[in-house]
Write a structure and sequence with these properties.
The protein is an alpha+beta fold. Helix content is 15%, strand content 32%.
Length: 78
């Protein structure tokens, strides 16, 4: 597969930090995979001035599950 960025629409069901909710259009940077309709899982999103929201983490479909991400965030907060 070619390494190209994707512009995708995602449905934010739950936000662990911040106040995002609903459907968002985000940029998934160049990677060795593509997001397909129906893909689910936790994503780290960031807002950029140039392109709106961008996927900052989970640059592969087989990374950490939601429970692991939530536990790490809670542990980092102390």
């Amino acid at each position: 597969l070619p390494r190209v960025a994707q512009r995708v629409r995602i449905e934010v069901e739950r936000c662990l930090r911040g106040a995002l909710a609903g459907e968002l259009e985000v940029i998934r940077p160049d990677a060795d995979y593509v997001l397909l309709p129906g893909h689910r899982g936790p994503f780290f999103l960031g807002q950029t001035a140039a392109s709106g929201y961008q996927v900052l983490g989970r640059l592969g479909p087989d990374t950490y599950g939601l429970e692991e991400v939530e536990a790490a965030i809670l542990a980092a907060r102390g």
